[in-house]
Amino acid sequence: MFANRVDQIQPFRVMEVLERAAYHEALGRRVVHLEVGEPDFETAAPIVAAGQQALREGKTKYTPATGIPELRRAIVGHYKKMGVTVNEEQIVVTSGASGGLTLLAALLLNPGDELLITDPGYPCNEVFTRLAGGVPVTMAVNANQKFQPTAAGVEMHWQQRTKGVLLASPANPTGTMLAADTLEEIARSVRQRGGFFILDEIYQGLTIEAPYQTGLQISQDLYVLNSFSKFFGMTGWRLGWLVVPQPAIEAITKLAQNLFISPSTPAQYAALAAFTPAAMAIHDARAATFVARAELLAQGLLKLGFSIPVRPEGAFYLYVDVSHTGLAARDFCWRLLDEFQVATTPGEDFGQHMHERFVRFAYTTDEASIQVGLQRIEQALQAWGVV
Amino acid sequence: MFANRVDQIQPFRVMEVLERAAYHEALGRRVVHLEVGEPDFETAAPIVAAGQQALREGKTKYTPATGIPELRRAIVGHYKKMGVTVNEEQIVVTSGASGGLTLLAALLLNPGDELLITDPGYPCNEVFTRLAGGVPVTMAVNANQKFQPTAAGVEMHWQQRTKGVLLASPANPTGTMLAADTLEEIARSVRQRGGFFILDEIYQGLTIEAPYQTGLQISQDLYVLNSFSKFFGMTGWRLGWLVVPQPAIEAITKLAQNLFISPSTPAQYAALAAFTPAAMAIHDARAATFVARAELLAQGLLKLGFSIPVRPEGAFYLYVDVSHTGLAARDFCWRLLDEFQVATTPGEDFGQHMHERFVRFAYTTDEASIQVGLQRIEQALQAWGVV
């Protein structure tokens, strides 16, 4: 009845988690939320103020499809601070990173073309691939490689119909970054094969001792995916951007005109304030908060006997091996929520590879709540006879 | 190098028109804009105020993928006033009608599936079809059928791989509506074939003696595409909605979660005010303004010898036969702009069928400007020896 891609979409377990959490909250119980992939902070005041001003000034009409020139220039300036020169035409402002993925799938994939992605990884990548009729091919990645592929791994998976690779650094659900030399090797290998390399950097800035700030410091022919959602705290505004190689500008502009008309106008004017010193100070402080939370949560979980095979270098997730509990990840998540009201996301939402062992803990809640969560997890382990 | 669909996209001539208009304006010349498919009004004050309030209240996080319940309920109420009962689950709030078209293409089209559309028609429909790997099949529609297909025409074009039909009522670029009995016949015919019927109603409310307010008054199993851009004057906010048949709810919800996460949060809260009596009074007054402009522009063009084979029943366009000028539509547009600074859109932006004869005049500018435009067109015809 519907297109085949519909049946190929895995349901998000986290949606059931959210519903069940809401059920407990409706009964008056406090739920500790460690499942949500959204910063708990509201959008920083200078950005909100800029949004309000834009509305006062009647900035409610369409803009150019690839974004207002001022914002594209501000993004160029953002890269300049990292020592990277891109020009304004390479910047495509999008309706969230989601809009960017639609554009890249439309630009790069014919029906039947294969795209290499990681397992575990961001689950929607498969759906964007299938949107364009493409075929997602997963590369299982392991803790001993920081849940990132090697160049040899990419080459091994590269077949006749493979057109490109999509990697994330830092990645969801693991928070790990692709090492600089691996990134360079993969870029070289993909270039030799005439393929494309999409690098998802939507967690840029939310990093802990990052080996680089952007992959563009290492390779210039990447398609870079970015977002105002995470570091800049603008999730609900739906705004992101792409940096595309020079030869792609004309084609992606045509696609953006046809598929989006333009990104949100109030959001674009608001985002102009995101790069101001006042806003950046807020974002940097928040990034530091995430680092502290990561430490708190990781130490607490380790103390309780959990294994965190790779410490994240960014984002706001810990990918935690729960096998010492004797429970499969899904049962662990469900019982922890239902019996102790701590919400987490089971590994199966991020792929098939060893998902029974892993649970994603998001530290998108304050330290006091994380403490409560840790206490409840300790109680859970005692109740279940694990400790 | 890029996906095949990129080469299949026709460039918008109107982009060249806009660039050339900007060139003249940069030289200090006044351009009369009859090319723009966007209302000249700013978003109504109650909506802007609601958007500002949403920002003050920190409404900047993700919402449910299909929209906030309050807005879905408000849309249900909008249909209730038309005597149509739809339930909240059937409403999918989208990132503009563009987002709606992406979702419908993803839901309904496998690679190779054919979708019937009209020529002339909204040019981006082809691109959304190709986004999902589908094949747009155009049905030439003529003035003697009000530029709308008949049921027999749809049946004639329906082949082995045809999965559905996408029609617009009122349509762009002609402003004509599908007659009620034709709509019913096509719906029946499509149902018998097990196909789907998408009805684009993004110009709903901007009508002149409409035979119906929504196709849902005639057939319940339509996929209805709508938008806050036109009647509600919210172009730059990027917000629209779908009404989908009950069986499609689960599948389209999954797609919306994966492909969009959620529509713009500030826009959704702003749009809640769009249905209030205060805002509706403004929208209705604007709709009346468009009716008056249509009359002014049509009378003026007819007096100058142009032929308007079908008077529009809605939207804000006249599709005008310029053949008495002896110029092909493209040359007419270019010379009118370059020599007399009146901007219009040539028929080729809307398809291949008789496009050399037709030009779209959009009355998205005030009456005084329309008067100036008409005077300049008269001068042009004199200068070119037509009158």
* Integer tally of domains of chain A: 2
Query: Residue ranges of chain A: pLDDT <50 for 5 or more in a row?
Result: none
CATH structural fold name of the largest domain in chain A: Aspartate Aminotransferase, domain 2
Inertia-based shape of chain A:
globular
Q: Largest interface, and how many residues on either side?
A: A-B, 66 and 66 residues
The CATH architecture classification of the largest domain in chain A is 3-Layer(aba) Sandwich
Measured by DSSP, the beta-strand proportion of chain A falls in 5-15%
Gap between N and C termini of chain A = 51 Å
**Quaternary structure classification:** homodimer
H/E element order of chain A: HHEHHEHEHEHEHEEEHHHEHEEEH
List the helices and strands and how they pair.
The structure is a homodimer of 387-residue chains.
Chain A lengths: L3 H5 L4 H14 L5 E2 L11 H12 L12 H12 L10 E4 L1 H13 L5 E6 L4 H8 L3 E6 L10 H7 L4 E7 L11 H13 L3 E5 L22 E5 L12 E4 L5 H12 L4 H8 L4 H27 L13 E5 L7 H12 L1 E2 L1 E2 L11 E5 L4 H17 L4
Parallel strand pairs in A: 1-10, 3-4, 3-5, 5-6, 6-7
Antiparallel strand pairs in A: 2-8, 7-8, 9-12, 11-12
Helix pairs in contact in A: 2-12, 3-10, 5-6, 5-9, 7-8, 11-13
